[in-house]
Amino acid sequence: MTWILFLEQSLNGLQFGLMLFLLASGLTLVFGIMDMINLAHGALYMVGAFLAAWLVNITQSFLWGVLLAVPLTAVFGMVLESTLLRTLYRRDHMSQVLATFALILIINEAVRMIWGTDLALSAPAALSGPVELLPGLMYPSYRLVIIGVGLALALFLYLVVTQTRMGAWVRAGASNRDMAMAMGINIQRLFTLVFGLGAAMCAVAGAMLGPLLAVQVGMGESILILAFVVIVIGGIGSIWGAFVGSLLVGFVDTFGRTLLPHLFREIFPPQVAATAGPAAASIMVYLLMAVVLFIRPQGLFSRKA
Amino acid sequence: MCVLRICWPLWGWPRSFKGVIMRTTKSGRLLALSLASLLAASMVQAADKVKIGFVSTLSGPNGALGAEIRDAFNLAVKLNGGRLGGLPAEVLIGDDQFKPDVGKQLFERYVKRDKVDFMTGVVFSNIMLAGLPEAVGEKTFYLSPNAAPSPIAGKDCSPYFFAVSWPNDAYHEAAGQHATNRGFKSAYLVAPNYQAGKDSLAGFKRFYKGKVAAEVYTKLGQLDYSAELAEIRAAKPDVLYFFLPGGMGINFIKQFVAAGLNKDTKMVLPGFGADQDIIRSVGDEMLGITDTAHWGLDLNNAANKKFVAEFEKEYKRLPTVYAAQGYDTALLIDAAVRGAKGNLEDKEALRRHIKEAKFESVRGAFKFNTNQYPIQNYYLREVQKDAQGRLVNKIVSQTPVLASHGDAYVQDCPMK
Lengths: 305, 416
Fold this sequence. Notes:
The complex is a heterodimer.
Chain A lengths: L2 H32 L6 H19 L2 H22 L9 H23 L2 E2 L10 E5 L2 E4 H23 L1 H11 L1 H6 L4 H23 L5 E2 L2 H16 L4 H29 L2 H26 L10
Antiparallel strand pairs in A: 1-4, 2-3
Chain B lengths: L16 H9 L2 H15 L7 E7 L6 H17 L3 E2 L2 E9 L4 H14 L4 E3 L4 H13 L3 E4 L5 H4 L7 E3 L6 H12 L4 E7 L2 H13 L3 E8 L7 H10 L3 E4 L4 H12 L7 E5 L5 H7 L7 E4 L8 H14 L5 H19 L7 H10 L10 E2 L5 E12 L5 E5 L6 E4 L11
Parallel strand pairs in B: 1-3, 1-4, 4-5, 5-6, 7-8, 7-9, 9-10, 10-11
Antiparallel strand pairs in B: 2-3, 11-13, 12-13, 13-14, 13-15
Helix pairs in contact in B: 1-2, 3-12, 3-13, 4-5, 7-8, 13-14
């Protein structure tokens, strides 16, 4: 592997990881602070992508479409929280899983009724080609924009959590909810705000990944599994853990997919390598999770004692 | 035909597809013949209509493919004044929902309850293979407008199965031949990690004489190919051949172009991977992509000119290979029923008339091999802009890449 290829794959891992982080950050806060398993988190990602595709088509501007879709999805998330999910906080995890799973099915069908099974969303024309970062290193400009947006939002979240009053509430809520309530924090309002923030992050991820992947019903489910892997690795309730976990998963998946088949071809006969290589690559992420769980069952950066 | 249970051990309902073949080809052949002649003797008069069961994927993400076949089939019937082979045509249409069990039930209903004369329609091999035993078991012809898997070309071939489309490997073999003709030194191959993916690359390699730089199998349903594209950039192949059906291919092409890889590496696809439906979803990134197919919009024959013009007039879009196959299937039924003079009960005679395929196919001349798969030409096509500025997949040369090409499995088929 040349260093140019290594750099390009690192950028790919970074891009994938940052988008996972946008999903995982909301998920980990909801799980960590509200002790709520929200399977419908992926549905917010889908709603964000559909809203963005719809608004981009109306406004004829990618930027405006995305900028409008993000607050709309946040409002949708907050409405969902204050009407439906709020009643689930005191229930056990099984009830939460069942209720939010039902929510996935309902939102999927609702989106299908409103917009159909898929919507077209393409990147702005100016970002459709590659740019030369270094001599010999060409990289799609749109993916660079995704990396930029992902890094900026990660920094924003870091500042919100460490520097603001709301961040202090969030940290307090994540490490000990009852104590935070006893200290007079309006937990109900905090929950709604956190949920809205998580939904906004989902919308950004959905809108940014839409042109790259596809805006279609069911797009949230497959990526949600990886987001859960991330928060299990990173430690539930920790933004920093979600960040490290996302990048780990991004890099392990990207390099696993390309390096493992090479490795298998060196070791095994071609017939075995052709079958075993791709199979092994697809379980790398879960292997990572298993190893982390074995060494640190609470995750790498858990905020819970 | 078997009214009493007593005859079951002699001529039982099929329990597996393979069993049916064994029976009809060996011990059952004589019995089938005598039964057929008995039936023919009792019903000498011609049927008053021809009934067709059409099962296809008409909903969901893959629904557009079935709709192409259905629309073209209906168009052919309509242009024929609602008749096939001189008889009024009744087409029963069912949606398999991309589920093999649903497809099997529809086959059973149309064959056993509605007693159709022909079955057709299915897009996907797995669904067709689930339903086919229902048709074959009742000696109802299945004329495939798309799926034509290798096993049925070889050891599992059946007198009641005709592939009106092309053997599953053929597009890939033609692409391999094209890569050899162009003198591409190194080829990079990508396919999803499942059986059809592996078969496709095997087909390509059968006719490709250059070096294979790498053979990459991705996860089925994968949508982001950044890591694979970086590898391709590093490998610098002359040609990239990939079989990624549906949304996978659409994403791959977009990301390939966004990465700037189309400047150094030529993309070659199987025909259905670069057809008008894919062009509509991907857009300008498709320009310059080459593919191989048995048919093209501008293939130079009178039947095709009429088909493309009428299809566009009726549906306001350009047809795909799927549509061409559906249209040909209707024409084949028309020719066979006409040849049999409307007598649909004499299966052996009807089979002979189907096999003659005396009709003006939109693909030009072709004939059925002993395994009832087509022997035909395969052409090179390229996505270009036409005079009106539309993206169209045009035939590069009316000289085929592979001429009068059959398949690699025919010698395993016991039918003569």
